[in-house]
Fold this protein.
Amino acid sequence: MTLHYGRPLVAIPGPSVIPDRVLNAMHQPSPNIYEGPLVDLALSLYPDLQTVARTKAQVAIYIANGHGAWEAAITNTLSKGDKVLVLGTGRFAMGWGEWGRTTGIEATVINFGMSHAADPAKLEQALRADKTHEYKAVFVTQTDTASSVMNDIPALRKAIDAANHPALFMVDCIASLGCERFEMDAWGVDLMVAGCQKGLMTPPGLSFLFVNERALEARKTADLATSYWDWVPRFNPQGIYQNFAGTSPTHHLFGLREALNMLVHEEGVEQAWARQELFARAIWAAIEAWGADGDLKLNVADPASRSRAVTCILTSNGNGTRIREWCENTAGLTLGIGLAAQVMGSDEWHNNFRIGHMGHLNVPMVMGVLGTIDSALKTLDIPHGSGAIDAASHVIAKG
Ligand SMILES: Cc1ncc(COP(=O)(O)O)c(C=O)c1O
C-alpha cells in the first residue's frame, strides 16, 4: 500500500507553500519591461511592502536571495575594517557576520546559544564598554530559522538607546516578515532585510532592504558599495530598468503582486499575524503533549522567545531524521532538517527536525502536518505522550 498519493505538502521553513493564485499570476507571457502595465505593477509593490513592515522607510528590491540582501545591507552602510556586533541566537545572524567578514568588515559575536533570545542587558553592557563607538552596526535576526528563537526587537533597541550608542540597528526578518509582528518605525530599526520566499509566499529570488534616514546617511561614507548592490539608483529610479540594475524579474513581480494582494489587501497583516500566532500555539501544544511522556521537546522553552513561523523540535537517537524520512518517503510530507547542528558540523542534527509554518497555511495543513508526525511516531515506535492532536485542535477551537 502507498500512502503518499495526493498532493505533497512541504512544511520546511522556506521556501514555503506557494499559493496557486501566485503560481497562476506568474503564468503569462513576457511583458514589455520599459513601459506599460509591468511598470505600474512594479511601482505598486513598494507601498505594500512598507505596509507589511510597518514603515515609511525606503525599499530596495534585489534579484537575489537572502544572502544577497545581507551583502547589500553590509556594502551600502559599512567600510573596510568597520566593526559590527552580532547577536547569535542560532545560525543566521552569525552567518550574516561571516558573510560580512568576506567583504572586509570585522564581526564580533555575542553567542546566546541555540535556545535563548539575545539578552538586552548583555547588548547594553557590550555597547557601554565600546566607549569610542567602534561598532558601526548591530546585526540580529528577528527569527533565527535554525533554532526557531525569536528575538525581542524593541527590547534590543532600548538597550542600544540606554547605552547611548550610535550603531545602526540592522534586523534580518527573512524568516519572519509577514509572520511575526514587526513594526520597523515604532521599534526604531534602522535597516531591515527580508526575502520573498517565506511569509511573502513567492518563489525564492527576490529580497528587500528597508532603509531609514540613519542608514541612508551611512551610505554616504560606506566604501564597500559596488554598482550592482548600490541602493541609490534603486531608490531614485529613472525607470524600472534602474530599479533592478538591469532587466526586471518580470514573473517574480507578477507573483509578488498577487501574494501582496492576498496578504495586504485581502487578509490584512494584523490578521495574518494572528493566524500565524494561533497555528504556532497549536503546534507547540501538540509537541508538549508528545513530550509529556516521550522523546520530543521544543528547542525554545520560553514561549515569548519562540518563532511563530518555524518550530525546532529536539529528539534523541537519530529520531529527528527517522521521523522526517518516514514523513517524506511514506506519507508525502517534507519537514525541515535539524539545520543548526548540521551547519555546526555535528551529528546531533539527526536528533532534531523543524516544522515550517509560515505564510500560506490553513487548519487542514496544520492538523495534517501534526497528524502525519503522530503517525510517524506510532509507526516508528518512538515514545510519545498521547493527546497531541486533541491539544492542537483545542487551541484552534478555543484560541
Ligand atoms: C533568518 C534567515 N536569514 C538569512 C537566510 C538566508 O537566506 P537565503 O537562503 O535566501 O540566502 C535565511 C534562509 O533560510 C534565513 O532563514
Summary: The two ends are 38 Å apart (CA to CA).
